[in-house]
Design brief:
Radius of gyration: 18 Å
Strand order of the largest sheet: 1-2-3
Order of helices and strands: HEEEH
Number of domains: 1
Shape: flat
Structural class: alpha+beta
Largest sheet: 3 strands, antiparallel
Distance between the termini: 58 Å
Number of strands: 3
Number of helices: 2
Length: 93
Amino acid sequence: MNSPTTKLEYVKAEPISLKSHPDFSEVWLHDQISKDPSILGLGDLTVIQRERVQVGAGRLDMLLTDADGDSPLRYEVEIMLGPTDPSHIIRTI
């Protein structure tokens, strides 16, 4: 019995601006990453917390972990649909 052949179609990606798009927002992007953190390309991650308050330092947008191994790695993800400002850069450091 022959297996069906899948025909692949090439579609050229077109960049869009999430900042000015009526249907997309930072919250939408948070939700997409929370549903499937693998889209970040950093491995099998788990979301620890969203909008984590850092005393005296604002909030972290997302805190994720890679629980594989003896020493889990932590990732801090800042989402900003526009130019970064010094407060975002400081929180990531």
